[in-house]
Design a protein that fits this description.
Layout: H1 2-36, H2 54-61, E1 67-73, H3 75-80, H4 82-102, E2 106-111, H5 118-126, E3 130-132, E4 139-147, E5 153-156, H6 167-179, E6 185-190, H7 209-217, E7 219-222, E8 236-240, H8 247-258, E9 262-266, H9 287-294, E10 297-299, E11 303-307, E12 311-318, E13 321-334, E14 350-354, E15 359-361, E16 367-374, E17 379-383, H10 393-398, E18 408-417, E19 441-448, H11 456-459, E20 460-465, E21 468-473, H12 477-488, H13 508-543, H14 556-622
Parallel strand pairs: 1-2, 6-7, 6-8, 8-9, 9-19
Antiparallel strand pairs: 1-4, 3-4, 4-5, 10-15, 11-17, 12-13, 13-14, 16-18, 18-19, 20-21
Helix pairs in contact: 13-14
Length: about 625
């Protein structure tokens, strides 16, 4: 017994010593890892949300003068709203990562602007926005200011939670503005109401958000819609809805491209943003297709693209209230619809288009046409008249017949092209002929068959944050436009600086189930709706037959018809409820399985594993040990 006690005591001492050594090794490994592997990261998120993009690295490598960044965060704000404290930790660590990658080019300072202190005065002077965090009205701050050695400044007034998915984009954009104070000139010709009234009043018309984003990276020069010559000072040209431009302006665009200028052109057979209630659409200048033809493209006249796989779900008024339908002419395009091999599509996750036109490649063209955005195979060409005014969304859905063809919605055109107006009498600003001969010149243009993708309504969700408007993208439309312009301008350092994830990430499986149920049940639902409306009309026609004295005269046949109609209405309503319930059956079943997996399946699986381990260990302890037989003692 004594020997066994000493063995157990020795084993206990060894176990304690082993735990002590393990603790020391754990601390040593952590200290070593913190010192040696601070720059190493392993990002397992689907969209690499926490990986510093190549565009950020390029921007940081371009720093040739010290940049000072001051990150303001009020501790009282973190105490009042712990979620901001978590967000602040992420911003701080990402900026420290920037500081390491910049190799001395960035000096980061962390500031806690306490109320009535010099640091609060500095935050106000830098332009930060404060929000009340205490009942006494003390303000909390959470923003970033930066400056370079030449007194250039940049600012993020407040890090709102809605902008968290776009943190790297906002930070790198600020640094880029400090690193590159000299920006290229962008000429903009637009016939759409993109420009505000300049009043700045709450009820006034504001510039479209895409204009604000363009001004962050380019010196935007608004050109008149009747311009006859694009100045030499313009580095890049963006044309929006040129179908209503005059031939002289189209000729000026043609000559700009022939001089080697790069252009981003948005054409549209039905520009919803330009439509005025009760007014017919303006006529399209036939010279537009004349210009596109020389580039190797044509815009299909009076046709818009309908796509059953990528249609957006919209709410419409029905006989029984709002109803949800797939509007085939409004598209929500995933990455599968894009040429991800083209740098223009870098970090573009989803695009929202509305009544987009269709581009077609011309035969025997001297240019190379590369589609950038296409529909799915389940698409068809809709007559533009079906989407004017108040479109019949349900009728378009019922009449859809797939043409099994992918339509081109945007394309890049490169190669050699002649002037479209070389033989015309169009003149430039100095009076010289537009072109002497139809010589082939290298061109690089991007043509998009939709203008409505630029409108805030289709890709931005706006909210008010203490008097400041916060714009949160619901699609990558702005990213696509900036990518295209930056790529055409010859600079690709910023292409990777877009939002690293959207606030609206749809569940594709649920969307597919909804769309499948839509096709199965909508026709039957619409038939029942029409039948119900007809029965109610017949019922009302009998109910309200009155004499001149206001008395209702109902015959026995009328009363029988009333009773019959009431019974039929109840029957139709029951069938309609059954059909509407069937629309949700598959989705509800999927949600039930997801809840089961999240709530019960994983704990049950772990419980089964633990139970199995327990049973195995129990059997091992209770199993009799096979002790070797002792050799017999040999005695003489």
């Amino acid at each position: 017994m004594r020997w066994r006690y000493l063995e157990r005591l020795e084993g206990t001492r060894l176990a304690i010593a082993g735990l002590g050594v393990a603790a020391v090794l754990f601390l040593a490994v952590n200290v070593f890892a913190n010192g040696a592997f601070t720059s190493m990261q392993w990002d397992l998120t689907q969209n690499k949300l926490f990986t510093v993009s190549e565009g950020t690295r390029k921007t940081l490598n371009e720093i040739d003068e010290p940049i000072t960044l001051r990150l303001y965060f009020s501790r009282s704000l973190g105490e009042a709203a712990p979620r901001y404290a978590t967000y602040y930790a992420r911003v701080r660590e990402l900026l420290r990562r920037y500081e390491d990658l910049a190799d001395g080019g960035i000096n980061l300072t962390l500031v806690d602007p306490k109320p009535f202190s010099d640091t609060e005065d500095r935050a106000v002077a830098d332009g930060l926005q404060g929000v009340p965090v205490t009942p006494a009205g003390d303000l909390g701050y959470f923003g970033l200011s930066g400056e370079n050695s030449t007194d250039g400044t940049a600012l993020i007034p407040f890090f709102t939670l809605e902008r968290e998915p776009f943190l790297e984009y906002d930070l790198t954009k600020l640094i880029h503005r400090l690193v590159n104070p000299d920006r290229k000139s962008l000429g903009l010709i637009s016939t759409l109401p993109m420009f505000g009234d300049g009043s700045g009043l709450p009820g006034g018309r504001r510039d479209w958000l895409i204009l604000d984003q363009l001004r962050e990276f380019f010196d935007v020069d608004i050109l008149e819609t009747d311009t006859r010559y694009i100045p030499e000072t313009i580095n890049l040209l963006m044309v929006v809805n040129p179908g209503t431009l005059g031939s002289s302006t189209l000729s000026a665009i043609d000559q700009f491209v022939q001089r080697g200028g790069r252009a981003l052109v948005f054409v549209d057979p039905h520009a919803e943003s330009a439509m005025k209630p009760g007014m017919p659409p303006p006529p399209t200048n036939p010279d537009l297709n004349r210009l596109l033809n020389t580039w190797g493209l044509s815009l299909i006249p009076d046709a818009v693209a309908a796509d059953a796989d990528n249609a957006r779900r919209v709410s419409t008024g029905g006989a029984s209230g709002d109803m949800i339908f797939d509007y085939l002419a409004w598209l929500s395009l995933p990455v599968e619809a894009m040429d991800t091999g083209d740098p223009v599509m870098a970090n573009v996750e989803r695009l929202h288009l509305a009544t987009a036109g269709i581009l077609e490649q011309e035969p025997d063209t001297s240019t190379e046409v590369r589609p950038l955005i296409t529909t799915s195979l389940r698409s068809m060409r809709l007559d533009v008249g079906t989407v004017r005014g108040i479109p019949d969304v349900a009728g378009i859905l019922r009449a859809f017949e797939s043409e099994d063809r992918q339509e081109i919605l945007a394309a890049r055109v490169t190669g050699m092209a002649a002037s479209a107006f070389s033989n015309d009498d169009a003149t430039n600003e100095s009076g010289a002929p537009a072109a002497e001969e139809a010589a082939l010149k290298p061109i690089n243009v991007i043509v998009v068959a939709d203008t409505d993708l630029l409108s805030d309504h289709f890709w931005v969700s706006a909210s008010d944050f203490f008097g400041q408007q916060v714009n949160v993208p619901t699609a990558s439309n702005g990213d696509f436009v900036l990518n295209a312009l930056e790529n055409l301008s010859g600079s690709d350092a910023l292409i990777g600086l877009r939002g690293r994830g959207l606030s609206n990430r749809p569940f594709k499986l649920v969307e597919d189930l909804q769309r499948e149920a839509e096709w199965r049940y909508r026709a039957q639902e619409q038939r029942l709706q029409d039948e119900l409306k007809d029965l109610e009309s017949k019922l009302n026609s009998i109910r309200y037959r009155e004499t001149e004295a206001g008395e209702v005269l109902l015959t026995a046949e009328d009363k029988a018809a009333l009773d019959r109609f009431r019974v039929e209405i109840l029957s139709v309503r029951k069938q309609l409820r059954d059909v509407q319930l069937a629309l949700r059956t598959d989705i509800d079943r999927l949600q039930t399985w997801i809840k089961f997996i999240n709530i019960a399946a994983v704990p049950l699986l772990l419980g089964c594993v633990l139970a199995l381990v327990g049973v195995i260990r129990y059997h091992r302890r209770t199993r009799p040990r096979n002790t070797p037989e002792q050799p017999a003692m040999i005695t003489e």
